[in-house]
């Protein structure tokens, strides 16, 4: 069983929580905690063996925690996700394979694409694919169709697996901190389109990828995971793109694992990640 807690910090919180668990015969298997001293915020993630009575556990924890405590016990044990794509296959293929073999940590409900290029690979995995074109329609109409399709499945998270359209604040607000994007750059460098071309022209010696939650500011949402690899003068822009795809797949897979295992806390525009 997983327990996650976020609240104002004060002395003795770890001891208080541990005492409640011991009293209810729950054995702590793993405990991670962090205090942001500047913000006076406390974060805790526990794995406990099931053995006591869960029904009153949250109520008992609230008695020893600050009034603003956010407590989740075994949150979303079987998460559901919707994946959104455009034309690039590498991140989607990795997600579909992990989903097929039951190693994703969640269940993919469907894939939505604003082009139909990736419909065939979804068919091969018996995955529902919805082609919703952005062409010759208003952005409101386009995103309205997306929202209607997503809401049919009531997912816990939406994964933008190289979905190359900027979402409006209206759509983002429907799913706050539930949309995860993979950006082909080591943010905050090279925001927006063609980051590998930007990196090539700048002559950088490192390229990377960033998985983050989507906010109203382009590519500036809370960061979940990042990774870089070295490059040099011999790399063309095409070489960087090829190398970058490997990083994007790896970083997105890592970020999804962290989120699905309830290891990520979001506050302000930052994250605490217990890896």
Describe the structure.
It is a single chain. The protein is an alpha/beta fold and 275 residues long. It folds into 2 domains: 2-73, 2-Layer Sandwich (Alpha-Beta Plaits), CATH 3.30.70; 79-273, Rossmann fold (3-Layer(aba) Sandwich), CATH 3.40.50. Helices cover 32% and strands 29% of the residues. The chain has helices at 13-23, 57-64, 90-100, 119-124, 139-153, 169-174, 195-202, 237-260, and strands at residues 2-8, 27-36, 41-49, 70-73, 79-85, 106-113, 129-131, 157-160, 179-183, 206-213, 223-230, 264-267, 270-273. The chain has a 7-stranded mixed beta sheet, sandwiched between helices. Strands 2-3-1-4 form a 4-stranded antiparallel beta sheet, covered by helices on one side. The two termini are 17 Å apart.
Main traits of this protein?
275 residues, alpha/beta, Alpha-Beta Plaits, Rossmann fold, 7-stranded mixed β-sheet, 4-stranded antiparallel β-sheet, globular
Tally of DSSP β-strands: 13
Strand order of the largest sheet: 7-6-5-8-9-10-11
Overall mean confidence score, pLDDT: 91
| Strand proportion | 25-35%
At the first level of CATH, what is the class of the largest domain?
Alpha Beta
Largest sheet: 7 strands, mixed
Helix residue percentage: 25-40%
Give the overall form: globular
Low-confidence stretches: none
- The Cα radius of gyration reads 21 Å
The CATH architecture of the largest domain: 3-Layer(aba) Sandwich
Q: Write the CATH homologous superfamily of the largest domain.
A: Formyl transferase, N-terminal domain
Helix and strand succession?
A: EHEEHEEHEHEHEHEHEEHEE
Distance between the ends: 17 Å
* Contiguous helical run count: 8
CATH fold call of the largest domain = Rossmann fold
**Structural class label:** alpha/beta
Oligomer description? single chain
Number of domains: 2
